[in-house]
Structures are given as C-alpha cells and as structure tokens.
Specification:
Its EC number is 2.6.1.42. The protein has 324 residues and is of the alpha+beta class. It folds into two domains: 130 residues, D-amino Acid Aminotransferase, Chain A, domain 1, CATH 3.30.470; 166 residues, D-amino Acid Aminotransferase, Chain A, domain 2, CATH 3.20.10. The protein is 25% helix and 29% strand. The protein is built from eight helices and 17 strands. The strands form two sheets. Strands 8, 9, 10, 11, 12, 13, 14, 15 and 16 form a nine-stranded mixed beta sheet that branches. Strands 1, 2, 3, 4, 5, 6, 7 and 17 form an eight-stranded antiparallel beta sheet that branches. A hairpin with a 2-residue loop joins β11 and β12. The two termini are 22 Å apart. The relative contact order is 0.15. Bound molecules: 4'-deoxy-4'-aminopyridoxal-5'-phosphate (PMP). 4'-deoxy-4'-aminopyridoxal-5'-phosphate binds next to α6 and β14. The site of 4'-deoxy-4'-aminopyridoxal-5'-phosphate (PMP) has 13 residues, from α6 and β14.
Length: 324
C-alpha cells in the first residue's frame, strides 16, 4: 500500500512478486528513512498455519515508525492484510522440521525530493520467502566476538528501532568477528564500552550462579519479541530473571569464579542460539564445554513447540491463519 500526506495509507493490494520502480531521487536512497519487521509462519502437523505474536511486530513497527518520523500504520488492519496474504500463499509454508515462511514487512520513503526532512510519500510492502532450518544438524552453540571499537547504537539514537541504518553500521564489526573466527558480534554500550547491549540480531541472556540476567532495555537495544517471550516463560517456570545493566567484566569474572553456566541469544531467526565461546580482546572463554546448556535446550524446545503447534500454547501467543 502507499501513503500520501493528503490521503493517508491507501490502495492495499496483492500483486505477484516483481521488481519495483523508484525515482533515483526517492528519499529512501539518500537519507535511509525506512523501517522493517521480521516474523515467521509455521506449518503444524495438522496443516494449520501459525504466526507467533504478530501483533507485537505491528506494535514494534509503529514504535520504529515514530522514531523515523514515518506515519503510523493501523496495526490491526495491517495484521489482517498480512494474514490474508499468508492465507493466499499458504502452500509456500514448508513443513519439514525447523522450516518456516519468513515474512518481511517494510516501509520506505518514496517521495522524489532531496530535502532533508520526513518524506510526504511512502510505500509499505510485505515480501515472503520459505526458509530452511537454522539448525539442520540440531541446535548447537556459536562463537561470539565482543566488539570494543565500533558501536551499534547510542541512547537516544535509533537503536530501539528496526531501521536499515542500524544494520549497515554493524557490518565493519561483523567482518572483524568473522576475521577472528567468530560468527556473531556482542555489542557494548557506546559511552563506557563496558555494559552489554545485544548480539548482531539477537538479544542476549546469561545464566550466572543459577540466576538468569539479561541487559535491561537501555534505550539503545531492540526490544526483541523472543526476548519478552523468554522472560515470561522463565518466570512462569519459577526462574529468577533479572533485567539490569550487566558489564562484560562481570561476565568474565563470573567465568573465572566458575559461575558462568550458560549464555544464549534470542531472536526470530534462530529462536535460541547457545553461545559456546566468547572472545573479548585477547581473552577467549569456553562456555559449558561448547555444549548447548539445559536451559537453552528447554527454552528452544518449548518455544519452537508452541510456534509449530506441537505443544499447547498456554500464553495465547500463536494466531491461526484461517483458510478462506
Ligand atoms: N536485536 C536485533 C538488533 C535484531 O535485529 C533482532 C531481530 N529482530 C533481535 C534483537 C531479536 O528480536 P526478535 O526476537 O523480535 O526477533
């Protein structure tokens, strides 16, 4: 659908996947005014299609819109459009273990103008693609590189929004991580380069001496939907979950004391990603013998179980895409 100042959002339509034409002076090419979301549809054993908390993606998209001066969407209406589209494309939702249909809603500023100010016209698109299993050989830990030079986001910046620039700004660090043999970047706060923020495209949790700790929403990290679900689930299971500032020194000190039990990331792509290795400056620590911890495994099984309809959903997190 499109947006014009005098019309609001208008002309929602479903068209075959195809290239779009934009004027070279479209504002998106110059000042990065864009937001996006990412969610998945899963096929159950009974051939139902389930979405996991899509209302939260809509809410977050409007928070991102607000930060990027993009006009708000009608969350309920857009969710209805999204469900209609998935229903139409339900044959594309794969059915083997770990697979899903990835859904990417996004908004770009299309006004033809080089003025540095919010655009007056936008396009909202949703594209879909089947995706394979993140763990074709079963869940396994990844290595993480602690970035101490570059910064992903500053408080008051755009770090809490899902906008393209946050990701392109992280490529340098990602390349450093790969050069060091690690697959992901762990970001520290911009001011002191001390407090842990998040991993590439995941939030992060630490189990230290029986307590689960995750960085508090600092005003510069993305509020992950998996993160909020994990916190609720852990509390439901009787775990203590603390959202607070946690420094990288504290994590390494806990390791030295033998108290660092598990580290894992959470996000839509991998759901739970256990961390087996953490590299910070010249020091590399091996966590839980590079094996997936019991808590990470239990969370993974329960969340993916709910997402794919294998387990009951006591939280009401899943939405069925009804067949028309
Ligand atoms: N942080 C960042 C920077 C991300 O891109 C993502 C992925 N959306 C996450 C955290 C995890 O968020 P979610 O659980 O909603 O996928």
């Amino acid at each position: 659908m499109d947006y014009e100042v005098d019309k609001g959002w208008y002309n929602p339509r479903i068209t075959p996947y195809q290239p779009i034409t934009l004027d070279p002076a479209s504002m998106i090419f110059h000042y990065g005014q864009s937001v996006f979301e990412g969610l998945k549809a899963y096929r159950t054993e009974d051939d139902e299609i389930l979405l996991f908390r899509p209302d939260k993606n809509m809410e977050r998209m409007n928070r991102s819109n607000d930060r990027l001066s993009i006009p708000a969407i009608d969350e309920e209406q857009v969710l209805d459009y999204l469900i209609e589209l998935i229903d139409l494309e339900r044959d594309w939702v794969p059915n083997s273990e770990g697979t899903s249909l990835y859904i990417r809603p996004f908004i770009i500023a299309t006004e033809r103008n080089l003025r540095v100010a919010p655009a007056h016209s936008y396009k909202f698109l949703i594209i879909l693609s089947p995706v394979g299993s993140y763990y074709p050989e079963g869940i396994h830990p990844v290595g993480i590189y602690v970035e101490d030079e570059f910064t992903r986001a500053v408080r008051g910046g755009t770090g809490t929004a899902k906008t393209g620039g946050n990701y392109s700004a992280s490529y340098n660090a990602q390349e450093k991580a790969s050069g060091n043999g690690q697959s992901q970047v762990l970001w520290l706060d911009a001011l002191e380069k001390k407090y842990i923020e998040e991993v590439g495209s995941m939030n992060v949790f630490f189990k230290i001496n029986g307590e689960v700790i995750t960085p508090a929403l600092s005003g510069s990290i993305l509020e992950g939907i998996t993160r909020m679900s994990i916190i609720e689930m852990l509390k439901d299971w009787g775990h203590t979950v603390v959202e607070r500032k946690i420094s990288i020194d504290e994590v390494f000190a806990a390791y030295d004391k033998g108290e660092l039990e598990e580290v894992f990331g959470t996000g839509t792509a991998a759901v739970i990603s256990p961390v087996g290795e953490l590299q910070w400056k010249e020091k590399t620590i091996i966590i839980n013998n590079r094996e997936t911890g019991d808590l990470a495994k239990k969370l993974y099984n329960n969340i993916t179980g709910i997402q794919t309809g294998k387990l009951a959903d006591p939280y009401g997190w899943t939405i069925k895409v009804k067949e028309k």
